[in-house]
Every structure is written in structure tokens, then in C-alpha cells.
Amino acid sequence: MFAPHPDGKAVMTPGVARLGSAVCARIYKQIAEFDDFTEDNDPYEDHDFGSIQPQGLPKIFWKIDYYEDADMEYGAEDKLNAYRVLVIMLSEEY
Fold first, then answer.
1. Helix (H, G, I), strand (E, B), or coil: what is residue 80?
2. For residue range 16-41, what is the model confidence (pLDDT) as tens digits?
3. Residue 2, in any domain of the structure
């Protein structure tokens, strides 16, 4: 579904995957374009969590986790030099 990237990957939960590839592509596009960060929903200005409500669909959460490397065994101390994993989930799966 998502193209591999040397600095990370994107994964989705089974609930999101069941929505089908066309809907998942729409969700991914909305996440890529997301810019509604505020002091309330992003107090540290990390831009690593958000929620979207695609028309006719349940609320979707997305979160970026940071790891030392692609083994994803340890969290990264430096987010700028990290292997990133974008997790896309239905809000009810959180």
C-alpha cells in the first residue's frame, strides 16, 4: 500500500485495512496534507499525532513513533536521526 522509505515506514491497523485500498489512499492523502496543529493538540510542536474525520468514515488517528533503527527495538533519543513508523488506526482501536 505504501512505498518503502529508507527513513521509515507506514503501517495501518486491521480496522483501517478493511476499509479498502481506495479509502486507505484517501486517508493517507489527508494525513499527508494535515496541518491543523495547535497548542492544544500539539503542545511540544512535534507534529507526530493527529486525527482526521474523512467524510462518511469513522475518526482516524495517526501517530509517528521514533526508533533508533529499522529493527525498531529501541526508541530514538534523537528524533531528527530516527527510523520513523507512521501508525494509522481507527479511533476505536486506540
1. helix
2. 999 999 999 999 999 999 999 999 99
3. no
- pLDDT tens digits for 8-17? 999 999 999 9
| Three-state secondary structure call for residue 89 | strand
Do residues 90 and 13 lie in contact, with contact meaning Cβ atoms separated by under 8 Å?
Answer: yes
Number of domains in the chain: 1
Nearest to 29 by CA among 7, 10, 46: 10
For the beta sheet containing 83-90, the strands, ordered from the edge strand earlier in sequence to the opposite edge, are 8-12, 83-90, 60-67, 49-52
Q: Are the beta carbons of 89 and 12 closer than 8 angstroms?
A: yes
How many Cα atoms sit within 13 Å of 20 on the Cβ side? 3
User: How far apart are alpha carbons 11 and 39 in whole angstroms?
Assistant: 27
Closest CA to 69 of 52, 81, 61: 81
CB–CB of 83/68 below 8 Å?
yes
- 43 in a structural domain: no
Q: Provide the domain limits for residue 56.
A: 8-36+48-93
